[in-house]
Amino acid sequence: MIRVTLPTHLRTLAKVTGPVELQVEEPVTQRAILDALEAAYPMLRGTIRDTVLKERRPFIRFFACGEDISHEPADAVVPPEVVAGREPFRIIGAMAGG
Amino acid sequence: MSEVRVLVGTRKGAFVLRSDERRKDWTVDGPHFPGWEIYHITGTAADPDRLYASQSSSWFGQVVHRSDDAGKTWETVGNEFVYDGVPGTHQWYDGTQHPWEFKRVWHLETSPTDPDSVYAGVEDAALFHTNDGGKTWRELSGLRNVKGNLWQPGAGGMCLHTIILSPDNPNRIFVAISAAGAFRTDDGGITWRPVNQGLKSEFELPDATAEVGHCVHSIAMHPSRPNTLFMQKHWDVMRSDNGGDSWHEVSGNLPTDFGFPIAVHAHEPETIYVVPITSDSHHFPPDGKLRVYRSRTGGDDWEALTNGLPQSNCYVNVLRNALAVDTLDSCGIYLGTTGGQVYVSADSGDHWMPIVHDLPPVLSVEAQVLP
Q1: Is the Cβ of B54 closer than 8 Å to some Cβ of chain A?
Q2: Angle CA(B301)–CA(B325)–CA(B138) in degrees, nearest 5?
Q3: Contact B82 A8 (CB under 8 A)
């Protein structure tokens, strides 16, 4: 199972209190994780990536194993620790504003 | 005894204020959707339990919520606002063309008869409609065919902020767009025409009387006079008596004719309200005094309403969707400020009192009398 952590506002929107667990078929990519996340929690559609182009929203970042992987291709496989469920795929609201 | 419900959208959530028809003692419920910008939260006349809220964030985009139990619980509905066909371009700040990009929903206008029918005014300016309670939204794209390539965002964004459904003609709708102007359809939204004749924007447009491009801030109508419209433009308070075909200025003796909202008394179609603001450079009231101005003559002749409003050191603004009226026999007037105050007058503006002092900046206020 893939573990995904959400920022506070999206946890509220999804009505969850902690990380969510998702069954994702391999290859496990950003796109596959987000597809599974939006299928399980349809209220999150459009809040992480554009509904049509499926592009990451500008103030959303993706982290895994302590690394910012936001600019990795959407179809690149995420780190093996995330695939194995040992590390979460973190969705973070970027620091922005004053 | 009737209940009054005031729905308040703020920069950091929504609040529901309730009172009886005396409007002296209030309860404050909220924040709903804490931390999100609520550009608009509104009820429906056809079903008092049905509410809609536009929730947005620079981080997470647009969400639309619906409640079927008067705000006790909420569910997300559709948030796919996809422009019809090829979105095209509009004018950018530097005069070049810029693609249409959806940013947020500014205003939700519910049908008086069908709680599932709602119009949404969005930024970048367009009009959408749902007839399934918000699950799906479809653009009425004929609007953007009206010289949309000449529309240009103002400082507040190129937003469609005002939607008026004509009470006597289901095919007639008026909309207003910042830095584009006012528009009307007479065929249910298929085709549109600009209704800006008589507007003058001498310091804002290269052609002061251009067909489109005027920065209309809000429009109001009394349901008994569907051909009479009142407009607060960037500068100038205007009036039309022919469904927008032509306008004339009624700023009269206002201390300044810059402002954002305009409203009409619930029972007196010639009694209108504005909140004069110093200028487009100084978004606060003149002399540090928050004064609502009332005209009982449909404009030109205005009186300041000050009793109960702060008359010193007040430097708040009242935004375009933050002035509302209720329909009780003694008409109530409500205004919300960027300082987080919501004021009520239960006697048509003669006396005011704060309902609440310290909310986040208020973006919208809607008042509804419940059976």
Answers
A1: no
A2: 115
A3: no
